[in-house]
Design a protein that fits this description.
Shape: globular
Oligomer: single chain
Strand content: over 45%
Number of domains: 1
CATH topology: Alpha-Beta Plaits
CATH class: Alpha Beta
């Protein structure tokens, strides 16, 4: 399994319960597809560098996980169609 880092930005108006629902959804997706979540950190609400879909702020979430390419493909596919996610980026961590 390879190590990955996933950063995503959620809509700023979400309360703690809605945010927990989104973060749990993707953590469970990773573990249910054979991956392992190492850390799931909430960085909090921050100002965006530029406006995205009429939002100037967003809630940043950083997830470190291990998994196979199938897990990465499924997370990528679902985040592209999720209206709650403003932006996301996933990278392979160096050894």
């Amino acid at each position: 399994m390879r190590a990955y880092e996933l950063m995503y930005i959620v809509k700023p108006e979400f309360d703690e319960e809605q945010l927990a629902t989104v973060t749990d959804k993707y953590a469970n997706l990773i573990t249910n597809n054979g991956g392992e979540v190492i850390s799931n950190e909430k960085w909090g609400k921050r100002k965006l560098a530029y406006e995205i879909n009429d939002y100037r702020d967003g809630i940043y979430i950083l997830v470190n996980f291990k998994g196979e390419p199938d897990v990465v493909n499924e997370v990528d596919r679902l985040m592209k169609i999720d209206d709650d996610i403003l932006r996301f980026m996933m990278i392979v961590k160096e050894k």
